[in-house]
Amino acid sequence: MTVYQKRLDDLTAEPRDWTVTGVAGFIGSNILQRLLAAGQRVIGIDNFVTGSRRNLQEVEAEVGPERWRNFRFMEGDIRDLAKCQAACKGSDFVLHQAALGSVPLSIDRPDETHAVNVTGFLNVMQAARDCQIRRFVYASSCAVYGDDAGSPKIEDRLGRSLSPYATTKRIDELYADVFSRCYGLPTIGLRYFNVYGSRQDPNGTYAAVIPKWMAAFSQGEAITIYGDGKTSRDFCFVQDVVQANILAATAPISGEVGAAVLNIGTGTETSLNELFAAMRDIVVQEKADSGQGEPIYKDFRPGDVRYSCADISSSRRLLGYAPAYDLRKGLTDLVAWDAAQEKPGIART
Known about the structure:
It is built from 13 helices and 13 strands. The longest helix is centred in the middle third of the chain and has 21 residues, at 110-130. Helix 8 links the parallel strand 5 and strand 6. Helix 1 packs across helix 10 (238-250), helix 2 packs across helix 10 (238-250) and helix 9 (209-218) runs parallel beside helix 11. It is 44% helix and 16% strand. The chain is globular and about 55 Å long. By secondary structure, it is of the alpha/beta class. Strands 3-2-1-4-5-6-11 form a seven-stranded parallel sheet, sandwiched between helices. The chain has a two-stranded parallel ribbon with strand order 7-10. Strands 8-13 form a two-stranded parallel sheet. The chain has a domain at 3-193 and 237-267 and 309-324: Rossmann fold (3-Layer(aba) Sandwich). It has helices at residues 3-13, 26-37, 53-63, 65-68, 81-88, 103-108, 110-130, 164-183, 209-218, 238-250, 272-286, 313-319, 327-340, and strands spanning 17-21, 41-46, 71-75, 93-96, 135-141, 187-192, 194-196, 224-226, 232-233, 235-237, 259-264, 270-271, 296-298.
């Protein structure tokens, strides 16, 4: 039995109260589904800027009416401190996922990115402190590594930030460390690498690469690669991120865990050219008339990190984190999920 399964069994036997910010989003809704399936009680907050009501409806359909009754939703913005306090009241754990999570968006609108990712983060953390939350777990990002040339990325080796988004996530980590020291609030930051999976929005200027390409393959459109295609990423399936959040919230408290920042990825590097080939193969198996042709190459984008792969040894050691999905398994599950939707590859609002 894995550490994760043992924790889920323990939680099922003794349910807890959880707050999930950004609960209607891609990652937040997957976390919600896992918690409700384990019989937990959840309060969720979202303003539907990047999340969607459809995501919540899908969770309700998956978990059924009895478990859905353990969920209470609050529509609100994390820039509103009173809303954050109401969302955290009575909870044991906070899983903070709400953010504007795009590098290109942050370059276009740094003020809005700062307001949500820093001011909103501070509001949620203050609310967690005031409500005496047992553990505050938050989404950080591999973007904080910036221009560090090392690979794989190790938690204590940071370069200079390459985008406003990366800067906001680094500020969050500094605030979490200070809150742990000044107020005794146990915090764990999870530096997500490139997360993909069900319910990820494929549309818009700032869409992430895998859902955007999935939509293009499904619709027979050309794929664009920025740069030479040798840019690499550590693509992490959303269910492994769900695992990391639950493990981080429930890990035994120690000096190392009390204010940790940990990488969450797979420890495997994949170039964009390799990703294109893998996605084309898997999509063609599902739909024979899709995924043909070669990609179109365009100039590199400002703010993009060249190479990114996670060293996950610390998260394995401190949390018992064990990724269950390699890229092919994750993409296969994603293609199956996408094909099961009413209109594969388009926005789900």
